[in-house]
Amino acid sequence: MTAGVIPAPSSSLGIKLFSCTLFFKANSLTNSTTTNYLRPPITEAVIEVRVNHTLKEENVNKIVKKLQSIDPNKSTVNNLSINITPQPEGGDQLNVNSRPEAYHLVSDDQINIAIVSSNSLAVSQLAPYQGWEAIHKNFVEAWKIWKRVSSSHPISRIGVRYINRIDIPLQDEKKIDIEEYLTFNPQVPILSDLPMVAYLMQITQPIDSLWSVNITSKGIQSPLVNNLSLLLDVDVFRTKDIPLSDEGLWEAINEARSIKNDIFDKCITQKTKELFY
After folding, report:
1. So what's the pLDDT on residue 26?
2. Is the Cβ–Cβ distance between 105 and 116 less than 8 Å?
3. Measured distance CA(195)–CA(16) in Å, rounded
4. What is the pLDDT of residue 118?
5. What is the pLDDT of residues 89-114, one digit of tens each?
């Protein structure tokens, strides 16, 4: 078995799926020190809450209208259903129904996003990353609007997700060894002398009795010249014993962020960290 090597991307990329198992000890995560990077590779940060209830459409519309005072540019994600009904006289009748599934509200600078559905609220921040305090503040404001419109309902899931794009300068050989940059990397059999052209990995791993994490990694084309990029997507979530009070919810969300930071640091090598300074 050998660690994956990726050449510079061509115009046509295949995807191969590999599996991997990582083990995280909860105490080692929560007690470790978070590293603050000068140039964090974050392309998107997300805080999401899902409730164990389906809001009426009129309440969803009220939430969306109030949130538009913060993020005014609205677009709709529709759920499309198609029904084909046989007719007595022969032939079929085609019925197409479309209804809103979620609303995307985007700020004028295209950085801050709120996503509202009948059972979830998410706040997202795109690059350039403005810091945890900024996205946390945006979520608190959005959640207060949600609660003013909707009655309190049990929360079924909370999550903090960060999508990172690690840009790696290519040297003369025009390829990279993933193992030099990620501890979360594919181990593949030696099939030929040719390098792997693409990869995709994903795991779901419990952290402790409350928290779990989805980690996704893949090679992607870099927007930078003479670079190759690795995507590292860390989604820390919890689906049980979620606090009902706002204070308890903020504490849990901050805990998820701390766990996410520690997992990110454990998934990258020192060579990768040096790219962020």
Report:
1. 45
2. yes
3. 13
4. 94
5. 766 766 655 555 789 999 999 999 99
Phi, psi of 203 (to 5 degrees): -135, 160
In DSSP notation, 75-118 reads EEEEEEEEEEEE-TTSSEEEEEEEEEEEEEEE-TTS-EEEEEES
User: Structure tokens of 15?
Assistant: 């995807």
- Strands 17-18 and 187-188, how do they pair? unpaired
Lookup result for tokens 């999401």:
48
Strands 187-188 and 92-106: unpaired
User: Where in the chain are the domains?
Assistant: 2-52+154-276
Report pTM: 0.83
Cβ 233 vs Cβ 160: under 8 Å: no
Phi, psi of 257, rounded to the nearest 5 degrees: -65, -40
Q: What is the pLDDT of residues 4-22, one digit of tens each?
A: 555 554 433 333 333 344 4
Q: Do 55 and 62 touch, CB atoms closer than 8 A?
A: no
Q: How far apart are CA 215 and CA 163, in angstroms?
A: 10
Q: What is the tens place of the pLDDT at every residue in 160-198?
A: 999 999 999 988 767 888 999 999 888 778 888 777 778
**3-class SS at 231?**
strand
Structure tokens at 67: 């949130």
Residues sharing a CB contact under 8 Å with residue 275, sequence separation 6 or more, in sequence order: 39, 41, 166, 167, 168
Mean pLDDT across 255-270: 97
Contact partners, residue 80, CB within 8 Å, separation at least 6 = 96, 97, 98
